[in-house]
Structures are given as C-alpha cells and as structure tokens.
Design brief:
This protein has 13 helices and twelve strands. By secondary structure, the chain is an alpha+beta fold. The termini are far apart.
Amino acid sequence: MLSRSPRPPGPEQIQIRLDEQCKVQCKLRLTAKQAKAFGERIEDEYRVTMILDNLPLAQVHWREVGGKQVKTYDRGYPVGFKTASDGSTGEGTYYVNNHVRFTILYNLDPETDLARIVGFEAEPASVAHRYKNRWDPVSPQLETCSGEHHPLEGLAVEPQPVGEGQEVIFSYDVRFKASDIRWASRWDTYLQMSESGSIHWFSVVNSLMIVLFLTGMVAMILVRTLRRDISDYNELESPQEEAEESGWKMVHGDVFRPPHAAGLLSVATGTGVQLLGMASVTMCFALLGFLSPANRGGLMTAMVLLFVLMGTAAGYTSARLFKSFGLTQWRAMTLRTALMFPGFCFAIFFVLNLLIWGQRSSGAVPFGTLIALTALWFGISVPLVFVGSYYGFKHPASEPPVRTNKIPRQVPPQPWYMAPGFSALVGGILPFGAVFIELFFILTSLWLHQVYYLFGVLFLVYVILLVTCAEITIVLCYFQLCSEDHRWWWRAFFTSGSSALYLFAYSAFYFATKLEITRVVSTFMYFGYMLMLSVGFFLLTGAVGFLSCLAFVRVIYGSVKID
C-alpha cells in the first residue's frame, strides 16, 4: 500500500508480478478551494513522490551521451502542467495528471523464483475520464481507459482541466517488467540523474591546481625565506645589528598578546572543531558505503548524532584556548560553546518549521521530533561539552615560545592591500574556488530532486578544502607579520572563514538562475537553510585556518634565539 501527496486520499493497491490496468483510485468533484490548491501546486512545479521497497518513484527520460541513448531518472512526476496563455483571458489553463502507469522492474532469481524489485518508474498522463451510464463506485467502467482507448497508447485524449466543479477521476496502471538489473546495481540509474563524472573530476583537478600553487608558496616561505631569516637572526652578534633588522621577528614581543574578544574566538574555534570532526567522520562513513543514498535519512541522522558526540572536542578546544589567553570564567565560556551555534540553528529551524506548519505541509517536522532534538541537545551535547571543557582546563596552559611585552608595540601604517577586510576577502576566494564546482551538484541534489552519491570525489574535494584553508591562512599571516602587524588572531580566522561569504553569495546566484521559487515561505526556507550552512562553513574553515596559523606562528617564533 502506497500513499502520495498532494494527491487526494486513496492509496494504490499493488500485488507483486500482477499487472493491472485502469484501476480507479477515486472520483473527486473539485471545490473552489481544491481547484485553487491544485493550480498553485502546478504553478510551483510540485512533484508527486513515492517510495517502493526503498526506491523512489522516478520519471524516465532519455538523453544522448556519446551517440547512445541513455536512460536517466527525475525524482517523482509533476502534479500537472499549464498551457500557454490564450488571447481571451491572457492566462493559461491548468491540467492535472490524474492517470499514471507504474512500471515496476524486478529481477527474478531462477533458483528460488523470488522476485526482487530493482526499479520503480512512472509515466503520467492527464485524461478527462468518461464513464458509461451512471457512476458505479464498486466497479466503475471507464470509456476513456480501456484496451482500445488507453490514454498511454498514443491515442489522442482530452486532458483533465482544473477548475471549480470539475469532476476528476484518478486512475493508475501497474505493469511488472523483468529486468537484468541486479539487486546490488539497482541504484545505478538513479545515480546517473543528469550528472557528468567528467565535471566532477574537472573540479578535483581545478582544486588540486590551487593546492599545488599554495603548497609551492608555503614551501618557499618555510624552506627558503624563513630558514634564511632564522639563520641570520640567530647569528646576530650585537643589539645594534638586531635593531637594524625589520620584519616578522620585530613583533615577537606582541605576537602572542591575547586578542580582543578572546573568549568569543575560543568559542568559535571550538565550534569549528566540532563541525570539523562531524564532517570528517561523516565523509569517512559515506566513503566506505555506510551512508549510501539507499539508506533514506541515514546521512542526516549520522550528522546530527556525530555533531552531538563531537561536543567533547568542542569543549576541550575552547577550554585550551581560553586558558592560554589567561581567562578564568570557564563555565560561561563552556555554556556559550554548547549553546551559541546550536541555538542559532535551532532558532532558524524552529521559525522555518512554524512557517511550514502554517502551510499545512506534510514536510513539517512533528512536535515530538523537536522535543527529541532538544533532549539530544541538552541531555547529551551540553554535558559532553562540559566534559571536554573540564579536561581542557585540567591540563596546564601551553606556554608561548616568546615572552609578551607589557606595552603593546605600535603597528606601523599598512599598505592598502594589507587592510584586514581586503586581506580576508582575498583569502576566502581560493578555498571557495576549490569547492564551488562540487557545490553546484550538492545544491542540485538538495533543491532539484537529484541524488548525490560521489562521496569519493567529495572526500577528495573536502581534503583539498582543508589544505587550502590552512595554506592560504599561513601565507597571508606571514605577509602580515612581515609588515610588523601583530594583530593576527582574528584575521587568521576570517581569512579562510570569509569563504562562507562567497558560499552564501553563490547560493543567492543559484537561487536566481536555477530555481523558480516565487512563494515567500519557500524563499525563506531556502535562504534560512543556506544561512545555517554558510555559518557552519564559516566556523569550520575559520577554525582550520586559525589553528594552522597558530601552529605556524609557534613554530617560527620557537626557532629563533631571543634573549
């Protein structure tokens, strides 16, 4: 028994390997409200979706690839269609797809005679059904749906318009078809939905070129410039010679001075580490096949649970940074780490869910699920953050390799290209450039009924993203220190984290060019979810860049001899 939405109630009855034709589901006389609802759904390009044996319903399309016709799928089928506007009213006419043929592909085991479902296809049609004499609800006889006059056999039929008082009869066919597709390969056609593997590999090659470029710059800085500088500084014989020097060593007495809003930086870095751990473990599970698209909801469930469990890493990282800055209010810091980002996401999610509730959509999250998420948050995530924070404060603070002066050193005037805002925006381009091609396919899978499955490619791009964030932050931090500007803490975080600005801007561009969303609630949903994704991306990339830069600064200042 299967159900679907927004079709009227009346689930289809399907028996394995039993073909049926022109089965009447129900008869409905549309009211003004129902006709308006159907028109709005058709205008907004709603699609009917179903699940059979964990396979999503798909409409078949054929496209030419390399001179061959390749079968691809689109998730579900449209509720109806709209004709072009006529000259009298200036408006088009809506027609509903009230007849559908289900083609169920099965693979038959010759030894056991057991059939396993390997495909679930749909072919919709709009038919203004007519029936003989009076309507018989027990065994209706349709003149427009018989062996001689079947709506899907190429015969011209009158489509079913949508309007007040229109009588709509919903019907369906069931056709079972033997297939050579093996059970293990039944998702292959679903996973080829208008995606090109060559584009994904182009994305990987593009990202690798960025990484190689940055790696060369970092190698030049570390191997050539820094080694020479450290050697020269360590061989200075007099204070006069040292005073004549300039560059990154001149700010050694201020480079480890705690920044403004040090507590907030600790919280942001800890949350970024939490997201980093969640994303990394999820990628590994998906790469190993534990989170395949066939497991509906498995990816989201794993992400939520891993985010909760990674609360320990968030608390530990925040506490270590917080203590190294010489701060003591660790309980307030721990609470902010546990509540700030999850609270931000929960607030947006709850507001969006209220809007969906107001639309009476079946996609709204039930109230019980919200309670369960809240219990998971306060019952597991918050305590784990406190556990990590406890162990982080229990360990002694890491001592900086150089002493900090009591009086801050004055920062000399900086050139325009070293301005914090400009430097951060430039630094965010390369991390975003490493992922934006793959980002297109991810957004397509989220918003355009596609299935994303290339987790191997995604894992490579993810690793390249992390390396790019680390390297671009180190390079720009080195240039900043050479300009005798010791205020690197927040700039290091924003250098790689600013890639989230480009992510959100690209999502707006994608919304304007690829999606045809006109309803206010749908627009709020899109930008609400993309805002949450962008903020999470900001924290993750910012934490990677900042921690990489912190390690770099400790290494270079620990390598020089300073009296």
